[in-house]
Amino acid sequence: xxxxxxxxxxxxxxxxxxxxxxxxxxxxxxxxxxxxxxxxxxxxxxxxxxxxxxxxxxxxxxxxxxxxxxxxxxxxxxxx
Length: 80
Known about the structure:
By secondary structure, this protein is an all-alpha fold. It contains five helices and no strands. Helix content is 62%, strand content 0%. The longest helix is centred in the C-terminal third of the chain and has 15 residues.
């Protein structure tokens, strides 16, 4: 018995997409993609966790992503 993994094809965002993210949004996304919690990201950035949450909510709204896994995939595709 063998298993086959089928991945849905997702087009990588264009490089201009990364410019639609503010520098602090990019930084927050980078920390989350690296495995940091919101609190850890906030401490690394010198912000409150509520501010990091707001950045990530904006990113989710811009790109229509809903999970941390999708945020991580987005960060990788943007080269962050």
